[in-house]
Structure formats: structure tokens, C-alpha cells
Amino acid sequence: MPGCFKQTVFAFIAALSFASFILILVAMGTQKWMMAKILCKTGAELVNATDPELVKFMGELYYGLFGGGKMRQCGLGGRHSRFTIFPHLVKKLNTSLHVVIILFLCVAFSFALVSLGFCILNILKVPYRAIKGPGGIALWNVLAGSFAVLAVSSFMAAVELHNLTERIANFREHVFQFVILEEQYQHCFWLCVASATIHGVNLLLVAVSLIHFPTLKTKPEEANVTAEDIMY
């Protein structure tokens, strides 16, 4: 059974692993990964709108992994609409990349739970000889953090390289064409970044748990032997 110091460190790692699991679940369930300002290019060109008039053709768009919403303005006031990624919109996107992002996040929070379980087992007892102690905990945190980083990187690639926001903005738009004026990552995206950072912190804590602090030993008192003790 590990000492009191290691138990404390493992308990802290377990709490962080559970926090990482919750962060990923919240990020996947909330549709606030990206916010963008969109311009109805077709409407602005039809009326030859100048800079002060372009405000009437600017709308907003937000989306996540499974859906989002859009407020479109084409000169006649704003119109709000909601959409879902599955099953129709995903066909207009890079389907394989979008599915891979979701799979990476699922694997990441699964390994976060495994890390939590092994921390608890290491607090109580050593679970398995092959992956016992800090080495096993470090392994699961490396895997969980790596898949979270892969998910975040894949989402950024979809946005920057595959024009994800523009494709979503022009979904089911047969008359008007929308262009992206501004994009900004929202809190759900940063929750996944925080989850990956947590596993990096866990690796540092695992390294701390390997530190062996010197134990203070009391010096035994020397016995005073007298002549009377020898006689008796």
C-alpha cells in the first residue's frame, strides 16, 4: 500500500482526471465551439451596399459538433434558424474528419475514466504488476491527453483548412451566398484544451509522486555501562 504522500498525490490526480472527463462531456454536449460573423454577399451586391449599409446584411453563426444556429440578414431583417450536423449537414462537410473528432473525444474521456480508476486502485492497493503504481497512471494520462490534443488539432484543421464555418453558413442556401467576416473559438473548444492541459499536469504530479523524501531517524541513546553493571 503506498505511503501517505503518494496517496495524497494519487487522490489529486484522480480528481483532475474526473474533472477532465466532465469537461469533455460538457464540450461535446454544448453547441458553442465556434462563433462567426457572416455577410450576405449576394444581398449586398444586389443593392450595391456601402459600408454603413453593410450592417443590414451581417448575421451571426454558432455551431458545435452536433448542431448550432444561424441568424441571417439579407436586407429584410434577421431570420433565426437552427440546424443539426447529423444526418444531413455532415454530408456537406469533411465527413471522415468530423467523425474522427468525435471519436477522438470519446476515446479521450474513456481514458480519463481509466486514469481515475487506476488512481483509486493505487490508493488502495497495487492493481497489476505490469502497470502498477505511477507508471500505469502516467500511461493512461498520456493516452487521454494525446487523444484530446488530436481532437482539438483536427477541429482546428477542419476550420482552417477545410472551411468548416463557410460550409455550414451556406448549407441549404440556394439563392444567397454568405462569406465569413470573423471567426472566434468559443468556450467549448477551450474546455477540450483545458482537458488536455489537465493530463499534462497529471504527468507532472506523477513525477512528483516518485520523489523519495528522506525520513528522519532518531539516534539511539548510548548505554552508560558502569563497573557495578559488569559485576551484576
From TrEMBL:
<feature type="transmembrane region" description="Helical">
    <location>
        <begin position="97"/>
        <end position="124"/>
    </location>
</feature>
<protein>
    <recommendedName>
        <fullName>Clarin 2</fullName>
    </recommendedName>
</protein>
<keyword id="KW-0472">Membrane</keyword>
<feature type="transmembrane region" description="Helical">
    <location>
        <begin position="136"/>
        <end position="159"/>
    </location>
</feature>
<feature type="transmembrane region" description="Helical">
    <location>
        <begin position="9"/>
        <end position="29"/>
    </location>
</feature>
<keyword id="KW-1133">Transmembrane helix</keyword>
<dbReference type="GO" id="GO:0007605">
    <property type="term" value="P:sensory perception of sound"/>
</dbReference>
<dbReference type="GO" id="GO:0016020">
    <property type="term" value="C:membrane"/>
</dbReference>
<dbReference type="Pfam" id="PF25807">
    <property type="entry name" value="Clarin-2"/>
</dbReference>
<keyword id="KW-0812">Transmembrane</keyword>
<feature type="transmembrane region" description="Helical">
    <location>
        <begin position="188"/>
        <end position="211"/>
    </location>
</feature>
<comment type="similarity">
    <text>Belongs to the clarin family.</text>
</comment>
<dbReference type="InterPro" id="IPR026748">
    <property type="entry name" value="Clarin"/>
</dbReference>
